[in-house]
């Protein structure tokens, strides 16, 4: 009797006559003849390793690029057969126009194996087309990063999973987990085979990748995805069809030059992935509160209530010597709950993002309305980061300004094109390494060199100054306290001649409390005066306790008038 796998080889050889020589199955899988002829003679680990050796590495297609990228590839791979201007959405099972790619009302790029479960942002797995599908933005949000599993019981499952999803979809919340999601029946096997491929393709041996595993344990999300027993069931119930074979072939011939062996040889699945029925799964622990949830799940990074445009916040001082500090001038109103992110990470460009190596991010969260003109200061070691009563600072990673030169980027976070991704809404950039922004970037340590984000180029939204360990913006005293427009402040701040620096003495930014305000006026020529209020403070230069010869009290709250 001819083994079933050899029958598959013969069938695929006929189906692949139109493929390039290197991607035809009879050529691509050369060297695996012994495994394919007698797979029962090999262990699970041996088959897995032999397959990995064939499908790895692959030609990496950029996630986002001005050249051919994943958007371009999905336009072809997931094209609607009846309309070349549309793609078929994996979870919604309806078409959408290619022109709607990346729109919040359109479609995005779905990672079948979620980034938060081990795929990440910079490795070859991030843009692997065998695990990327076109997906409706809204229905994709229902999937989020949930495990795949059956969900038929209407008493506990949301059926359908979303108002715009087919009736054969479902989702359910499970305490202590991200929950489960059941995709449409027509693609359950397709998605299962994508996960089988990922678990074999990535064992953590390549840079910026993890050892991906399939599991039955829904509360195990550390480089792990599932639910394995259900995926095996779907693989059987929804077998490989011609559309799946064609897509697999196109990935090889036109893009990555590798194939998903579990589409070509579905019989191998049961030999590589052994179902344990979850016998050793731990009990998922329910989080005590939403606050605990945020802390434990790393939701430091979350979409901001506010959305900055270039110039909405400016850096007006820093200390890279002790005590390390950063001072900002907020030039637009920031509502309570609004956030400002500040990082010294290197920006590596669109489609790559930040270096994410040995550096960190600060986040200021407003506790009250922070009016335009307010100064907010982060001071290392102070409770709440030195929020001054208008908000608190938290940190992620190792925010460590380098005394040999570094950069600071200020931004808010908008919703990204993929679930769990973000759009960086840059407000300001400062580099204190040289008088021009770096053109040769590197992302290797605590003084990574990064490029200026495109959004901050071409206006008074960035400043590159020669190196000093510690610097502050001075400006003229009259200009500092007179009413200026936002643009007027930015023009002064982005003039390096208005800055002072020192390599041995840190500036005492604590003397300018958060809550000290400037007038940010809507029109040029308006003046600034104090209004009623009980809180007073002396006029001060930034970072210095210099007093006027005739001490004057100026109310914190000020207004612009003609």
From TrEMBL:
Keywords attached to this Swiss-Prot or TrEMBL record, sorted alphabetically, are: Hydrolase, Nuclease, Signal
Stored Pfam families: Endonuclease_1
Q: Which terms does the record give in the GO molecular function aspect?
A: hydrolase activity; nuclease activity
The residue stretches assigned to a coiled coil in this entry are: none
Signal peptide range in chain numbering = 1-20
What InterPro entries does the record point to?
Answer: Endonuclease-I, His-Me_finger_sf
For whether the record's keyword set contains Transcription, the answer is: no
What is the name listed in the Swiss-Prot or TrEMBL entry for this protein? Uncharacterized protein
Source organism of the structure:
Triparma verrucosa
